[in-house]
Design goal:
By secondary structure, the chain is of the alpha+beta class. Helix content is about 35%, strand content about 25%. It is built from 13 helices and 14 strands. The strands form two sheets. Strands 1, 2, 3, 4, 11, 12, 13 and 14 form an eight-stranded mixed β-sheet that branches. The longest helix has 16 residues.
């Protein structure tokens, strides 16, 4: 049988060249432990109408497991400032301090209302990248975003009319304009965008929450979603940008302050809200990692499920440097699960 270097000469040379590079630990797989813990902690609150206790449980679990990871991390996208949480706040040091210095972006529950109401697509997410490489929005919680997958990554322009972007993406994906499906957060602030998409003849999937999952779906094949557009969370945008680095998609964003305190912060900090933030400005490193675990069922990930044997989790782990996407199915024994959650 021919060796790989003779049967696949280009692949053989690639692996030969890579052999001279010292491989680094894939932290994305470590981060799956973090999002699994948060999802398992939040799952008992699914459908109970209490998003605050669900979020508190997820935050505690995420912080507990994050403390065991081999990183010297600093939270740059956290819970504290917007949600008045005492943990996982911007500037908090996380990890056990023995590994690389990294920026950390967390959302223990992307979709707290989805979790509380037992609706689809609630996930727990975390992203990390080299220290100083993640965009920090400070006190600006909202961002206008457009996200597409690899086929259309060079076609979008957030400053262009909606019809322009829809037409470009349709052409790049060899679809009719009426075949394009756009995910948009169902908020009053997005109503003009929603009207423009409908007038263009494209389809819309309105979501109540969870635009990290929606962003990833826009860049993944066979999800039925072609784009994400509209004003959502700035933290969620930075986290999603880490995923785009692996998936080959792209994102453009502009700060879009909605609250009086945000407008005040923009004026005090002299921020330019007309500036287009590219994916390489949101994440200024290719050494980025992303992990997510489903809390409730969705098109991207299955939610936490319980059986007599324990619980199962469905996660995704992304590493930008290698462009690797892994799907991770976790099986958790009940006696170990009780011990973990009881120690948080």
């Amino acid at each position: 049988m021919a060796t790989s270097s003779t049967a696949f000469p280009k692949l053989g040379r690639a692996w030969w060249q890579l052999s001279a590079i010292k491989p680094e630990r894939n932290l994305a797989l470590e981060l799956v432990r973090v999002t699994e813990a948060a999802a398992l902690a939040a799952a008992p609150w699914v459908g109970r109408g209490d998003k605050h206790n669900a979020d508190d449980a997820a935050v505690r679990a995420m912080r507990f497991i994050l403390g065991s990871i081999d990183i010297a991390g600093t939270i740059v996208i956290g819970e504290g400032e917007k949600d008045n949480a005492p943990w996982l706040y911007n500037g908090e040091k996380v990890g056990n301090g023995s590994g690389p210095e990294v920026d950390v972006a967390v959302d223990p529950i992307d979709g707290t209302s989805l979790t509380a109401n037992g609706q689809l697509n609630a996930i727990s997410v975390i992203a990390i990248a080299d220290r100083g490489s993640l965009y920090s929005p400070e006190s600006i919680f909202y961002m206008d975003k457009i996200v597409v997958g690899p086929e259309a990554k060079d076609q979008i322009d957030i400053n262009a009319p909606v019809i322009h972007n829809l037409t470009k993406v349709a052409k790049a994906k060899s679809k009719r304009l009426s075949d394009i499906t756009v995910m948009v957060l169902n908020r009053n602030r997005n109503q003009t965008l929603i009207d423009d998409i409908r007038n263009a003849g494209s389809r819309i999937r309105l979501i109540q929450d969870g635009d990290v999952a929606a962003s990833v779906m826009a860049a993944r094949p066979n999800t039925g979603v072609d784009m994400l557009m509209g004003i959502g969370g700035t933290p969620e945008g930075v986290i999603a940008a880490c995923a785009m680095k692996t998936l080959g998609g792209t994102m453009q964003g502009r700060l879009a302050p909605q609250l009086p305190e945000e407008i005040k912060a923009v004026n005090e900090q002299g921020l330019d809200i007309t500036k287009v933030l590219t994916i390489d400005e949101l994440v200024r490193s290719d050494n980025a990692f992303f992990a997510a675990t489903g809390i409730t069922d969705g098109e991207l990930l299955k939610g936490v499920r319980y059986q007599a044997e324990g619980a199962t989790t469905d996660s995704i782990a992304l590493r930008a440097l290698s462009g690797t996407t892994r799907r991770v199915l976790g099986e958790h024994r009940p006696e170990k699960l009780v011990g973990l959650l009881g120690s948080i």
